[in-house]
Amino acid sequence: MTTQTNGAFDRTPLIAGNWKMNMDHAEGVALVQKLAWTLDDANFDYDRVEVAVFPPSTDLRSVQTLVNGDKLKLEYGAQDLSDQDSGAYTGDISGAFLKKLECTYVLVGHSERRTIHQEDDELCSKKVDAAYRHGLTPILCVGEGLEERKAGNHVGFTLEQLRGSLKGLSASNAKTLVVAYEPVWAIGTGEVAGPEDAQEMSAAIRAELENLYDAETASAIRILYGGSVKAANAAATLAEKDVDGVLVGGASLKAEEFANIARFEKHVVSE
Ligand SMILES: O=C(CO)COP(=O)(O)O
């Protein structure tokens, strides 16, 4: 799906659910089915707001079969890809394989990859490149830790990650890029960056993208916020001008809660 002007939105909102290392393929199929039923029951307009799930790679074939078989309007993607295309890279997953599974998106440089697997900006830039090489849209994750936030250096730190991870990316590819701002201190902690924090960083990221490319490219790129997003706080964050979606962890594992996040325009508050 391409980014476009869409009713009240400058860019089509993207509600993305990162399951992390949760849900085996049988559980994953049940979750996607429940999510689709819940959204269909609510007459959800998939053309207005895009919904995507990011299951573990072992679930992707099952999710593909379900999405195709039931003609679901949900998108899906992988949580990571190799910077290499094929060969002796035990345990790694090629973008070519993800494309064959008809993934639309792939996460790149999630903070858990950056910290647990020591992925640096240079590797992330190669992964962004690999995603485009295989026709996948990367969702590049950036964001500061608590230390940088406390020191007031959160913007500088995050923009440096952005520049390093986009090294060599052409303007024509950048137009379809998605960036996810995920402050590490807000992930899985229940601490949510306020809507104004999300807006401050999203605006800074967009300005930097304009510096790197041009105004047209920068205004086409979707910027998501991630970190303890729930139905109760999604609407306020998504109301911010430069926030074009959310990347949801824990709350994406519950079909109803995630569906309520996707229905943020209804301001549904979860029980
Ligand atoms: O890391 C995240 C999504 O990629 C955020 O996770 P939580 O929503 O569980 O804080």
TrEMBL record:
Substrate binds at residues 18-20, 188, 228, 249-250. Its EC number is 5.3.1.1. SUPFAM superfamilies: Triosephosphate isomerase (TIM) (SSF51351). GO terms for molecular function: triose-phosphate isomerase activity. This is Triosephosphate isomerase. The active site is at residues 110, 182. Keywords: Cytoplasm, Gluconeogenesis, Glycolysis, Isomerase. It catalyses: D-glyceraldehyde 3-phosphate = dihydroxyacetone phosphate. GO terms for cellular component: cytosol. It comes from the Bacteria. Involved in the gluconeogenesis. Catalyzes stereospecifically the conversion of dihydroxyacetone phosphate (DHAP) to D-glyceraldehyde-3-phosphate (G3P). InterPro entries: Aldolase_TIM, TIM_sf, TrioseP_Isoase_bac/euk, Triosephosphate_isomerase, Triosephosphate_isomerase_AS. Homodimer.
